[in-house]
UniProtKB/TrEMBL annotation:
PANTHER family on file: BETA-UREIDOPROPIONASE, NITRILASE C965.09-RELATED
One Pfam family per UniProt: CN_hydrolase
Coiled coil start-end: none
GO MF annotation list: N-carbamoylputrescine amidase activity
Protein name (database record): N-carbamoylputrescine amidase
């Protein structure tokens, strides 16, 4: 099969409370990736601001914007200027009292190719997202772009094989996860290692099970807890690209801001699926109970 290679840029960035400064730094990093030949650039989750979900604060709803709105105008212009497909992650104000964690994808001419609203919403210490976000209602539908059919999901979605499978079944040529995940600084080194390894392993497993590449872009750096009830979050970076057999093609460090460029061969998925025909051998007639909350004895 003929190769279908694209050059992907991943931007791993630390943020401050200055939204405009964060956006300006992103614009510079996107330009850097584009100048190095990126056709597709992926940003981390909620990249305009600090990760505000460490606390429940009604004033932080002021960070949300409509789509389309000021941020979509900003990133649309950048995508058009550099001729790239751009995957962004925004705090969407859909209607009064209705907010989503939404990934927005821009085509090379700056038009909005599509969006995905985060489906799985966590509510853990330091990650109080249920306070801010209504679960998505757009389903698991890939976004068609000039570089391929993108299965865009967001952070907590990455732990769910069902989401990855449904995207793949709908024709996604790759899975993309803008992410904001990190350690509690008080955790032991062993616990930190277990958490990060589990995060990498589950996403590599989605690549293997579905025979498609996975792109995961995380933020990096320490962000303090505004309530001072904890020591904040140390985002662990380690953004990576895995191939369709789960192999790590490239990854970043756990502590530094980095832009990396990766060559992805989308056509290789067909070769892998021919030798590992997992999709062929699914026993769909026996999976009905997967939609239940639990199973009785």
């Amino acid at each position: 099969m003929a190769k279908k290679e694209i050059r992907v840029g991943l931007i791993q960035q630390s943020n401050t409370g200055d939204v405009e400064a964060n956006k300006a730094k992103l614009a510079k990093n996107i330009a850097d990736c584009a100048e190095k030949g990126a056709e597709l650039v992926v940003l981390q989750e909620l990249h305009n601001s600090l990760y505000f979900c460490q606390t429940e604060d009604v004033d932080l709803f002021d960070l949300a914007e409509p789509i389309p709105g000021p941020s979509t105008d900003f990133y649309s212009e950048i995508a058009s200027k550099h001729g790239i497909v751009l995957v962004t992650s925004l705090f969407e104000k859909r209607a009064p009292g209705l907010y989503h964690n939404t990934a927005v994808v821009f085509e090379k001419d700056g038009t909005l190719a599509g969006k995905y609203r985060k489906m799985h919403i966590p509510d853990d210490p330091g990650f109080y997202e249920k306070f801010y976000f209504t679960p998505g209602d757009l389903g698991f539908k890939p976004i068609q772009t000039s570089v391929g059919k993108l299965g865009v999901l967001v952070c907590w979605d990455q732990w769910y094989p069902e989401a990855a499978r449904l995207m793949a079944m709908a024709g996604a040529e790759m899975l993309i996860y803008p992410t904001a995940i990190g350690w509690d600084p008080r955790d032991t080194d062993d616990e930190k290692s277990r958490q990060q390894n589990a995060w990498i392993t589950i996403q590599r497993s989605h690549a293997v099970a579905n025979g498609i590449p996975v792109i995961s872009v995380n933020r990096v750096g320490h962000e303090a807890d505004p309530s001072a009830n904890s020591e904040g979050i140390q985002f662990w970076g380690h953004s990576f690209v895995a191939g369709p057999q789960g192999e790590i093609i490239a990854n970043t460090s756990s502590s530094e801001e980095e832009n990396i460029l990766v060559q992805a061969d989308l056509a290789r998925s067909e070769d892998v699926r021919r030798i590992w025909p997992f999709l062929r051998d699914r026993r769909i007639e026996n999976y009905g109970e997967i939609t239940k909350r639990f199973l009785n004895d």
